[in-house]
Amino acid sequence: MDIEVKTLAGGSAGTVSLPEETFGLEPRADILHRVVRWQLAKRQQGTHKTMTRGEINSTGKKMYRQKGTGRARHSDKKAPQFRGGSKAHGPKPRSHAIDLPKKVRLLGLKHALSAKAKAQGLIVIEDAKVEAVKTKALREQFKGLGLANALIIDGTVDAGFAKAARNIPMVDVLPVAGLNVYDIMRRDTLVLTRSALDGIEARLAGKSAAAAETAAEGAN
Q1: Alpha helices per DSSP H over 2-148
Q2: 20 to 30 Å CA-CA from 136: which of 1, 121, 160, 172?
Q3: SS3 helix, strand, coil % of the chain, rounded to 5?
Q4: pLDDT tens digits, 12-31
């Protein structure tokens, strides 16, 4: 799959061939859903907490005598039905993370890249560098490329480019190491530099080799 390479100024910088095994797959919504769900569950803090009867600072004295009042039998005021009481079966700190095989995570990344390529939402640029760190100038360049809602991936993010882009709404800049399915799918356009393409190929090749080695060890 060949795609034109552009410059930030909107000019042409030749073409580049994208590997079919990474950018030419038929996207599967079920795999993308599993990976995104895994990502979002993993980032949940899980710090919600309610107090039990034993954790509430209150008197343990019996509210009133057991018999003769015509009212229900109660102990102290820490019971859940009273104001200031505990919470019955309330949440406790825990991890919301779920397991997902490495092969599925790897496949999800490939399907996300293929989904952008199939939907004409993939742009390749020569590099992501600016001479002057000016947000206004970079916004005009993005406008010329038709980028209003985009994720920009570079091999090594240029500090000046990242600083100029961080004030532009709905534009994210990440290195190849931070490439993930959720950020790819939440933006309309995926922008890759030449160095990012090399980095993605190396990253996926490394993960594939590690997965194959793990599978071989399991078979033995």
Answers
A1: 20-23, 29-43, 102-118, 135-145
A2: 121
A3: 40, 15, 45
A4: 888 999 999 999 999 999 99
